[in-house]
Amino acid sequence: MLQGNTGKNSVTGFDFTGNMTLLVDDIVKTHPFFKHIKVKNILIAMSPSNGNRNGVVAKLRPMLFEGGSRTKTVRRIEYAAPEVMINGTNILYIVYFHLPRFLNHGDQKTKLVTVLHELHHISPLFNGDIRRYSGKNYAHGNSRKDFDSLVSIYTDEYIHATAHPELSIFLKFKYNELKRKYGAIYGDMIRIPRSKNVSFQKPMGNI
């Protein structure tokens, strides 16, 4: 049974953001690898996908640059990262799930692996940057196979340790199945502004 008594669902639809946030919170509280994550500083968002079954199903958007810096310089131009505040809370990460593609991607465990995969990308310093490995493949390390294997192990450990397995039950459903059950699927959607050019341009002197 889906968690109908959490206040996240109603006759008007299924709250994807609310339910996914509850699941992420349980993952953070259950598995020690993710204990550095502060859920209040993360926004779970929906992003529409096209009808193609192939493609990105989820992605993590860090809100700051390398090392948690608010600014970075590219070709002598300084850029500032956009700031996102929700109810007075500074958002350091946005996790986008592309619907309907994410819900149609594999079985319940496959989707759960995807959730932990995105959380794994969060820096252990929780500073608004991603977890960075040495080398040019800094996002996944030298072996994508090893990365995926590790995330799969973490997923199994979470499944066996959680006291609230009901929180991931909604991942059993395909998009249309969940929509038929609740009438609609809704959640937060946000478009992040581009980084702003904050370079100080010195005034030209008189010729």
Note the run of SSEs as H and E. EEHEEEEEEEHHHEE
Shape: globular
Number of strands: 11
Q: Give the class from helix and strand content and strand pairing.
A: alpha+beta
Q: For the CA atoms, what is the radius of gyration?
A: 19 Å
What summary fits the major beta sheet?
3 strands, mixed
Helix content: 25-40%
> What is the arithmetic mean of pLDDT?
90
N-to-C CA distance = 77 Å
* Integer tally of domains: 1
Q: Indicate the proportion of strand residues.
A: 15-25%
Helical stretch count? Answer: 4
Quaternary structure annotation: single chain
In the sheet with the most strands, the strands line up as 1-2-10
- Would you identify the regions where 5 or more consecutive residues have pLDDT less than 50? 1-6, 201-207
Report on this model:
Helix 2 (108-120) crosses helix 3. The protein starts with 8 loop residues before the first strand and ends in a 10-residue tail after the last strand. It is 26% helix and 19% strand. The protein has one domain (9-197). 26% of the residues are buried. By secondary structure, the protein is an alpha+beta fold.
Entry keywords:
alpha+beta, Phage metallopeptidase domain-containing protein
In short:
It comes from Candidatus Methanoperedens nitratireducens. The protein is an alpha+beta fold and 207 residues long.
Q: What layout of secondary structure does this protein have?
A:
Blueprint: E1 9-10, E2 13-15, H1 16-30, E3 42-48, E4 58-62, E5 71-74, E6 77-80, E7 85-86, E8 89-90, E9 93-99, H2 108-120, H3 144-161, H4 175-182, E10 185-186, E11 196-197
Parallel strand pairs: 2-10, 3-9
Antiparallel strand pairs: 1-2, 4-9, 5-6, 6-11, 7-8
